[in-house]
Write a structure and sequence with these properties.
Layout: H1 2-26, E1 31-33, E2 44-48, E3 52-57, E4 62-66, H2 75-101, H3 112-149, E5 159-161, H4 163-183
Antiparallel strand pairs: 1-2, 1-5, 2-3, 3-4
Helix pairs in contact: 1-2, 1-3, 1-4, 2-3, 3-4
Length: about 210
Protein backbone atom coordinates (compact mmCIF):
# COMPACT_ATOMS: atom_id res chain seq x y z
CA UNK A 1 0.00 0.00 0.00
CA UNK A 2 2.88 2.35 0.78
CA UNK A 3 4.45 1.83 -2.64
CA UNK A 4 1.08 2.40 -4.30
CA UNK A 5 0.65 5.71 -2.47
CA UNK A 6 4.17 6.79 -3.42
CA UNK A 7 3.47 5.83 -7.00
CA UNK A 8 0.26 7.85 -7.08
CA UNK A 9 1.99 10.84 -5.46
CA UNK A 10 4.76 10.66 -8.04
CA UNK A 11 2.30 10.56 -10.92
CA UNK A 12 0.35 13.55 -9.60
CA UNK A 13 3.54 15.58 -9.13
CA UNK A 14 4.85 14.65 -12.58
CA UNK A 15 1.48 15.48 -14.17
CA UNK A 16 1.38 18.90 -12.47
CA UNK A 17 4.95 19.51 -13.60
CA UNK A 18 3.97 18.66 -17.18
CA UNK A 19 1.05 21.11 -17.01
CA UNK A 20 3.43 23.76 -15.65
CA UNK A 21 5.84 23.17 -18.53
CA UNK A 22 3.02 23.76 -21.02
CA UNK A 23 1.99 26.97 -19.24
CA UNK A 24 5.58 28.22 -19.10
CA UNK A 25 6.10 27.53 -22.80
CA UNK A 26 2.99 29.45 -23.81
CA UNK A 27 3.56 32.46 -21.54
CA UNK A 28 5.15 35.59 -23.09
CA UNK A 29 6.83 36.65 -19.82
CA UNK A 30 10.13 34.83 -20.25
CA UNK A 31 11.95 38.10 -19.75
CA UNK A 32 10.71 41.56 -18.86
CA UNK A 33 12.23 44.97 -19.39
CA UNK A 34 14.31 46.18 -16.47
CA UNK A 35 13.77 49.65 -15.09
CA UNK A 36 16.73 49.67 -12.73
CA UNK A 37 18.08 52.96 -14.04
CA UNK A 38 17.61 56.17 -12.10
CA UNK A 39 16.24 58.27 -14.92
CA UNK A 40 14.02 55.74 -16.67
CA UNK A 41 10.37 56.72 -16.72
CA UNK A 42 8.04 54.64 -18.87
CA UNK A 43 4.32 54.10 -19.17
CA UNK A 44 4.51 50.53 -20.43
CA UNK A 45 6.01 47.18 -19.48
CA UNK A 46 7.75 45.11 -22.15
CA UNK A 47 7.78 41.31 -22.18
CA UNK A 48 9.38 38.78 -24.50
CA UNK A 49 8.65 35.08 -24.75
CA UNK A 50 9.38 32.15 -27.02
CA UNK A 51 6.59 32.93 -29.44
CA UNK A 52 5.74 36.62 -29.11
CA UNK A 53 6.62 39.96 -27.54
CA UNK A 54 4.10 42.00 -25.58
CA UNK A 55 3.73 45.52 -24.25
CA UNK A 56 1.40 46.34 -21.37
CA UNK A 57 0.28 49.93 -21.08
CA UNK A 58 -0.27 51.70 -17.78
CA UNK A 59 -4.00 51.46 -18.45
CA UNK A 60 -3.78 47.65 -18.34
CA UNK A 61 -4.13 47.14 -22.09
CA UNK A 62 -1.83 44.46 -23.49
CA UNK A 63 -0.65 44.34 -27.08
CA UNK A 64 1.25 41.31 -28.35
CA UNK A 65 3.02 40.62 -31.62
CA UNK A 66 3.90 37.13 -32.78
CA UNK A 67 7.39 36.73 -34.20
CA UNK A 68 7.15 37.03 -37.96
CA UNK A 69 9.74 34.57 -39.23
CA UNK A 70 11.26 31.48 -37.66
CA UNK A 71 14.46 31.87 -39.68
CA UNK A 72 15.06 35.39 -38.34
CA UNK A 73 15.09 34.22 -34.73
CA UNK A 74 18.30 33.67 -32.82
CA UNK A 75 19.64 30.14 -32.68
CA UNK A 76 19.48 30.15 -28.89
CA UNK A 77 15.79 30.99 -28.95
CA UNK A 78 15.09 28.27 -31.50
CA UNK A 79 16.96 25.73 -29.36
CA UNK A 80 14.99 26.79 -26.29
CA UNK A 81 11.77 26.36 -28.22
CA UNK A 82 12.81 22.89 -29.36
CA UNK A 83 13.73 21.79 -25.84
CA UNK A 84 10.46 22.99 -24.35
CA UNK A 85 8.38 21.36 -27.10
CA UNK A 86 10.37 18.13 -26.65
CA UNK A 87 9.73 18.30 -22.90
CA UNK A 88 5.98 18.62 -23.53
CA UNK A 89 5.91 15.69 -25.97
CA UNK A 90 8.01 13.50 -23.68
CA UNK A 91 5.74 14.35 -20.77
CA UNK A 92 2.71 13.31 -22.83
CA UNK A 93 4.30 9.96 -23.66
CA UNK A 94 5.41 9.49 -20.06
CA UNK A 95 1.89 10.16 -18.81
CA UNK A 96 0.34 7.43 -20.98
CA UNK A 97 3.10 4.95 -20.13
CA UNK A 98 2.90 5.66 -16.40
CA UNK A 99 -0.91 5.36 -16.38
CA UNK A 100 -0.57 1.88 -17.86
CA UNK A 101 1.68 0.85 -14.99
CA UNK A 102 -0.32 2.40 -12.14
CA UNK A 103 -1.50 -0.08 -9.54
CA UNK A 104 -4.94 1.52 -9.45
CA UNK A 105 -5.47 0.73 -13.14
CA UNK A 106 -6.73 -2.65 -14.30
CA UNK A 107 -4.56 -2.73 -17.40
CA UNK A 108 -1.98 -5.57 -17.44
CA UNK A 109 -3.21 -6.98 -14.14
CA UNK A 110 -2.16 -10.48 -15.18
CA UNK A 111 1.55 -9.55 -15.11
CA UNK A 112 2.41 -7.35 -12.15
CA UNK A 113 6.13 -7.28 -12.92
CA UNK A 114 5.61 -5.83 -16.39
CA UNK A 115 3.01 -3.46 -14.99
CA UNK A 116 5.48 -2.07 -12.45
CA UNK A 117 8.17 -1.80 -15.10
CA UNK A 118 5.82 0.32 -17.21
CA UNK A 119 5.40 2.69 -14.27
CA UNK A 120 9.17 2.89 -13.85
CA UNK A 121 9.63 3.52 -17.57
CA UNK A 122 7.05 6.30 -17.41
CA UNK A 123 8.95 7.81 -14.49
CA UNK A 124 12.18 7.79 -16.48
CA UNK A 125 10.46 9.59 -19.36
CA UNK A 126 9.12 12.20 -16.94
CA UNK A 127 12.63 12.73 -15.57
CA UNK A 128 14.01 13.27 -19.08
CA UNK A 129 11.14 15.68 -19.80
CA UNK A 130 11.89 17.66 -16.65
CA UNK A 131 15.60 17.77 -17.44
CA UNK A 132 14.89 19.10 -20.94
CA UNK A 133 12.71 21.88 -19.50
CA UNK A 134 15.28 22.62 -16.80
CA UNK A 135 18.07 22.94 -19.36
CA UNK A 136 15.94 25.20 -21.57
CA UNK A 137 14.88 27.57 -18.79
CA UNK A 138 18.32 27.69 -17.18
CA UNK A 139 20.00 28.34 -20.53
CA UNK A 140 17.56 31.15 -21.31
CA UNK A 141 17.92 32.63 -17.83
CA UNK A 142 21.71 32.54 -18.10
CA UNK A 143 21.56 34.52 -21.34
CA UNK A 144 19.26 37.10 -19.73
CA UNK A 145 21.58 37.49 -16.75
CA UNK A 146 24.70 37.78 -18.90
CA UNK A 147 23.08 40.47 -21.06
CA UNK A 148 21.91 42.34 -17.96
CA UNK A 149 25.38 42.52 -16.44
CA UNK A 150 27.10 43.24 -19.75
CA UNK A 151 28.41 46.82 -19.51
CA UNK A 152 27.93 47.28 -23.25
CA UNK A 153 24.18 46.61 -23.02
CA UNK A 154 22.25 49.90 -23.03
CA UNK A 155 20.31 50.52 -19.85
CA UNK A 156 17.00 50.90 -21.66
CA UNK A 157 17.37 47.49 -23.36
CA UNK A 158 18.16 45.37 -20.30
CA UNK A 159 15.83 42.58 -19.29
CA UNK A 160 15.21 40.63 -16.10
CA UNK A 161 13.77 37.20 -15.38
CA UNK A 162 10.09 36.88 -16.21
CA UNK A 163 7.48 34.88 -14.35
CA UNK A 164 7.50 32.16 -17.02
CA UNK A 165 11.06 31.25 -16.06
CA UNK A 166 10.14 30.71 -12.42
CA UNK A 167 7.13 28.63 -13.40
CA UNK A 168 9.34 26.61 -15.74
CA UNK A 169 11.90 25.94 -13.00
CA UNK A 170 9.21 24.84 -10.55
CA UNK A 171 7.49 22.67 -13.17
CA UNK A 172 10.75 20.99 -14.20
CA UNK A 173 11.53 20.23 -10.55
CA UNK A 174 8.07 18.70 -10.06
CA UNK A 175 8.44 16.53 -13.16
CA UNK A 176 11.86 15.28 -12.07
CA UNK A 177 10.76 14.61 -8.50
CA UNK A 178 7.54 12.93 -9.59
CA UNK A 179 9.40 10.76 -12.06
CA UNK A 180 11.83 9.75 -9.32
CA UNK A 181 8.93 8.68 -7.09
CA UNK A 182 7.55 6.59 -9.96
CA UNK A 183 10.93 4.93 -10.35
CA UNK A 184 10.81 3.92 -6.68
CA UNK A 185 8.16 1.35 -7.61
CA UNK A 186 10.76 -0.75 -9.41
CA UNK A 187 10.17 -4.44 -8.65
CA UNK A 188 12.80 -5.94 -6.42
CA UNK A 189 14.50 -9.12 -7.43
CA UNK A 190 13.70 -11.89 -5.06
CA UNK A 191 16.24 -14.62 -4.51
CA UNK A 192 14.72 -17.94 -5.38
CA UNK A 193 15.73 -20.88 -3.24
CA UNK A 194 15.22 -24.52 -4.23
CA UNK A 195 12.29 -26.13 -2.49
CA UNK A 196 13.14 -27.93 0.69
CA UNK A 197 13.23 -31.66 0.20
CA UNK A 198 11.57 -33.54 2.98
CA UNK A 199 13.06 -36.70 4.31
CA UNK A 200 11.03 -39.88 3.85
CA UNK A 201 9.26 -40.92 6.96
CA UNK A 202 10.08 -44.31 8.35
CA UNK A 203 7.29 -46.75 8.19
CA UNK A 204 5.69 -47.25 11.52
CA UNK A 205 6.83 -50.38 13.19
CA UNK A 206 4.19 -53.04 13.38
CA UNK A 207 6.10 -55.09 15.90
CA UNK A 208 6.61 -57.99 13.44
CA UNK A 209 9.99 -59.08 12.11
CA UNK A 210 10.19 -60.07 8.48
CA UNK A 211 12.86 -62.51 7.33
Amino acid sequence: MASGGLQLLGFVMAFLGWIGIIISTAMPQWKMASYAGDNIVTAQALYEGLWMSCAMQSTGQIQCKVYDSLLKLEGNLQATRALMVAAILLGLVGMFVAVTGMKCMKCMEDDQVKKMRMAVFGGVIFIISGLAALVATSWYGNRVARAFYDPFTPVNTRFEFGSALFIGWAAASLAILGGSFLCCSCPRRETSYPPTRGYPKNASSTGKDYV
